[in-house]
């Protein structure tokens, strides 16, 4: 038992001594090469300053106060929450207000849902598109028996109705303005009302107005209320093809006979619709990782088969009014970034950012690290050369003014030089050069003691 304790004590002591020696060695190394380490730290600090920052934990998005935009915004919000990002939804009056938020470079809102046809403004600088994420058909609902669509083209005769076209600043009202303009119809007639979508739908159901125009998704509450109401009819855009040619941001959609209710055969005839698209626009300063997250959310939420869209149809770059962001362009060409397929969002983003950061740092650090052995040798040689210069100066001065009475002082100076070099790092890093220097010191010491080569005072 005693031998075991002794052996254990010896092993522990050996481990301790090894660790202590290693730490001392590293400490000595740091003391020698600290300028190079400082240069590496400065380089890393500069790269951190120039590198892409971490994505924000909070993003503001403009969404409508109701309708499909609010529903879609809440779905995006829930998706972002699973990735550790808070998506704050800012209620607005619709697409026109949303686009203005993005145009204002001082506005904190960095993402918005905007209808096609609302984007082409005079100054769109700094606004980019992540693509279209859904269809937004133009729905004209009217009360039964007000019109015979066999003899009337409802979208042309629309101003004859007491009809709600949405509040000022809304996307619906802007689309109606475009439609009326194409049909050479006035906008200033008193029967065109400015109620909110929900108030307009309620007024139509109560019989207080004749019709309502909505520009909204099929799943919106307002649209679903009216398509299920047997007393409300949906108008057909019989000239839908003409609209899509005259306004390129419009798409042509079809509701088949019985498409809303096969049992009741609603509608009782095929209906043609024109549809704009819901577009996801961003401030071009939005962090690339957040852009990728929006696209992943759109793929997850909008990429499924819906009433009008095929599976995988969205997101896509259908509306070209705003330029596609470089991040979205890469996404459409290459798909989901590889790391995001297999890792949590925060980890994938961190690895990508660190890779982009460390690659140039490695290129900067490699020659510095490689030069460490040479740096230590050069530092040792510099210490040796410093003593050589002192020795050379001492020899010249002594040869010109040698005084035998000061021999002890001369030897003391030489001894100090030799002690200085013995105590320096050079004695370990450049041993051969140190011995050479010490030999030269010894040579001059012997010469002084034998009074060789020195004339001095009063010497011939």
Explain this structure to me?
This protein is an alpha/beta fold and 460 residues long. It contains 15 helices and ten strands. The two termini are 82 Å apart. 31% of the residues are buried. The model has no long low-confidence stretch (mean pLDDT 82).
User: Approximately what portion of the residues adopt beta-strand conformation?
Assistant: 5-15%
Q: Would you tell me the overall average pLDDT?
A: 82
Q: What oligomeric state is this?
A: single chain
Order of helices and strands: HEHEHEEEHEHEHEHEEHHHHHHHH
Task: Note the main attributes of this structure.
alpha/beta; 460 residues; 15 helices; 50% helix
Chart the SSEs and their pairings.
Layout: H1 2-50, E1 58-64, H2 67-82, E2 86-92, H3 95-103, E3 111-115, E4 127-143, E5 163-164, H4 171-182, E6 192-193, H5 197-205, E7 211-215, H6 221-227, E8 232-234, H7 240-246, E9 251-255, E10 271-283, H8 288-302, H9 326-334, H10 338-342, H11 345-370, H12 372-400, H13 407-422, H14 426-429, H15 431-449
Helix pairs in contact: 1-11, 2-8, 12-13, 12-15, 13-15
Explain briefly what this protein structure is.
By secondary structure, the chain is α/β, with parallel strands linked by helices. The protein contains 15 helices and 10 strands.
